[in-house]
Design goal:
mainly beta, 24 strands, elongated, Jelly Rolls, seven-stranded antiparallel sheet, binds calcium ion
Length: 453
């Protein structure tokens, strides 16, 4: 108490001035920030290049040791999203130094720099980590570009070692042969299925000129892995730098995000959110093996099945029938991939063969899982498109497209994320002439429309 009084007396006695004007010592921090902003406003305009001018002000303030703590708050004071005010006491503690620093454009941080890179194969000195070494150097010989062999569907991937909300990705090409990257896709997500290629797609690279850097916006897609793949052809994949500009998720959100992907039995996923009425923010480290009704025992969370195979209750139809390949075989709950066990569909050979499930009610489709035929001809499914929506126009093919299936190996099951596309119908079509559509199981995971976790 005595100390407080003494401090108060000192405060009254010492002339606290900011920008030459006396201030209330109890509003010192606030006034000082205002002052700095005013000062900066006079000498720096938004159009100026901050990295060049890097304005710096020195403000006379009284000796106040407690400013050390207050400075921590000051350092985070943002001016306009692109610039940040950094302030600190100088060595003599009698002056406050304040400067405006330009943040990286849009306040983004390249989180790939701390990641771990991998790729489908290695050519020469083009190790995967060259694409996250922090330099865009385009000369292959300078060992800053990744380079695969002439692979079919070559891929490169960075594991960000945590889940991030990805805003944008910069990709820099090599001096040689930049056209090889044409048609490459950028995928982001938490799955390593199919080397991460089955994660949702951010964008397709149409063309990046030799030695240049292009930016792809990813709308805050969440994920731990960023994958670049050249689908559908044999090609060398080389990348001189991949910069991933992203924000980290909060601790709790990160936990939830990883939990959401923890499958219990292939059909259910455990999810949780904080209950606003309960302050405890702790979460169990592993999903409880419980069904939704018993979730209510957890007072501090809600949990529910956030994914269930809603295709099972649908009605399937297809463009034509060959042999025993009934349309409903694909939603019989059985992933048996041998066509002769009568759990797969089969159309005639025709133009644009399609299969469709009517789920009789609208829901938000989070993901669609496909099991391809396992005994022979898995390549028939290559190029199939998944469309989701509420329209039956053109047999449902005109609905929005979730994904194009490049290839699912024989008998394997792949999951494609559809980011909660809403629709009553899920349609699979193989565009082109003389095509045959065979599917052994389609699982549609979704949430009721309007029910947000
Ligand atoms: Ca590099
Ligand atoms: Ca089946």
């Amino acid at each position: 108490m005595t100390t407080l009084l003494l401090l108060a007396c000192l405060s009254m006695a010492l002339p606290y001035t900011v920008c030459g004007e006396p201030v209330n010592p109890f509003n010192l921090l606030k006034d000082r920030v205002d002052c700095v902003e005013k000062q900066l406003g006079k000498i720096v305009t938004p159009e100026e290049d901050f990295s060049a001018t890097n304005a710096k002000l020195k403000l006379q303030v009284a000796r106040v040791d407690t400013l050390r703590q207050e400075n921590e708050a000051l350092e985070q004071q943002q001016l306009d999203g692109q610039r940040v005010l950094v302030a600190r006491l100088n060595a003599t503690k009698t002056e406050l130094e304040a400067e405006v620093q330009e943040l990286k454009r849009d306040n983004r941080v390249n989180v790939a720099l701390k990641g771990v890179a991998a790729q489908s194969s290695l050519y020469g000195i083009g190790v995967a980590s060259n694409a996250i070494d922090g330099t865009r150097e385009p000369e292959y010989n300078k060992q800053s570009c990744s380079h695969t062999q002439d692979d079919t569907n070559p891929w490169w991937r960075v594991d960000l070692l945590g889940v991030y909300r990805v805003k944008a990705i910069n990709i820099s090409t090599m001096h040689c042969c930049a056209e090889r990257l044409n048609g490459a896709e950028i995928h982001i997500g938490n799955s390593l299925e199919n080397n991460g290629i089955n994660n949702p797609r951010c964008d397709v690279i149409s063309q990046i000129p030799t030695g240049e850097t292009h930016t792809f916006q990813c709308n805050e897609m969440k994920g731990r892995y960023v994958v670049v793949v050249i689908p559908g052809r044999k090609e060398y994949l080389h990348l001189c730098e991949v910069e991933v500009h992203a924000d980290g998720l909060s601790g709790l959100e990160a936990k939830l995000n990883s939990l959401e992907h923890q499958q219990l039995d292939g059909q259910r996923v455990w999810g949780a959110r904080l209950d606003d009425t309960y302050p405890n923010t702790s979460l169990p480290s592993t999903p409880p093996s419980i069904t939704p009704p018993s979730c209510k025992h957890f007072k501090f969370i809600h949990c529910q099945m956030i994914k269930r195979n809603v295709a099972l209750k649908g009605v399937a139809t297809q463009s034509s029938l060959y042999g025993d390949g009934q349309a409903n075989n694909v939603i019989d709950g059985n992933r048996e991939s041998n066509y002769h066990k009568i759990s797969c569909t089969h159309t005639e050979q025709e133009t644009n063969p399609w299969w469709r499930v009517d789920r009789s009610s609208r829901s938000r489709v989070t993901a669609v899982t496909f099991t391809n035929r396992g005994d022979v001809v898995p390549e028939r499914l290559d190029g199939a498109e998944i469309c989701i929506g509420n329209s039956l126009e053109n047999t449902g093919i005109n609905n929005l497209r979730c994904v194009v299936i490049h290839h699912i190996p024989a008998g394997e099951t792949y999951t494609f994320q559809c980011n909660e596309m809403e629709g009553q119908y899920v349609v699979v079509v193989i565009p082109g002439q003389n095509k045959i559509l065979t599917l052994c199981e389609v699982e549609v995971y979704g949430l009721p429309a309007g029910n947000h976790l």
